[in-house]
Amino acid sequence: MKANGRDGIEFDDMANNNNAFGNTISANSRFGIEIWNAASYNSIYENTVEVSSYGIWIGMASNNSIYHNNFINNIYHVSTYGSENTWDNGYPSGGNYWGGYNGSDTKSGGHQNQTDSDGIGDTPLVIDGTNQDNYPLMGPLAVFVAGTWNGTTYSVEISSNSTISGFAFSVEQKEISFNVTGTSSTVGFCRVSIPKALLGEPFTVWIGTDPVTPTIASDGTHYFLYFTYDHSTQTITIQGTSVIPENLLAMILSMLIFLAAVAVTLRNKRFSRKPQV
Hints:
This protein starts with a strand and ends in a 5-residue tail after the last helix. A hairpin with a 2-residue loop joins strand 17 and strand 18 (152-160). It has a five-stranded parallel β-sheet with strand order 1-4-7-10-12, with no helix packed on it. It has two domains: 2-133, no CATH class; 141-244. With 277 residues, it is mainly beta. It contains one helix and 28 strands.
């Protein structure tokens, strides 16, 4: 946590190819995140920047990627000049959560022109003439670690207007579960991003004991499940059909089969070259 200072995180003097993620940056008198002086090709993601004068300030620095961050209760969420950067991770992955964004969510799809909601704002968050978040998130993003296998840590991202608690991932049950809490008589939503290598479709989703049919989108690495519910305190359960150890076993078996095939090929080539007597 970087709090109660002048600036939170700073990239300057051509600081390139860095990552900043998983930080809570709070109550800084000037900038939560500062990027300037030709700092390029940096990735800023999964941070919460709050209660600062400027959430993020960028000057004369381009080609940076800023996505999956929460900008909450800053005097100004963003200011930029002389810069052109990327403010989302494409569709369906999405962009950032901007507190105070007043766009609606009645559409879905890469052009936000298809029927049904998807947890992404229908209109971009325009920063200036060369910068905009094309896919602003409708709820703050929370990141939960599901576990580490074979040296790789897998996380689940949940964008929601509910308070999320009690996250758990069960290999044995092939399921993710968590609690949602919100003001009664209002509608809650969740947009859950699940690594494909962690849990595979088809999915079954329950809100309490009631099944619900989510809207599902995907990219090369993740599934994105969106669903709504009446607010109270409820348990969400998402059950898949394949799970990470099974996926690892399949990968190992595939590698063994591949290596065996290579060995046979090399053996055949060796014997085919044996001189005739």
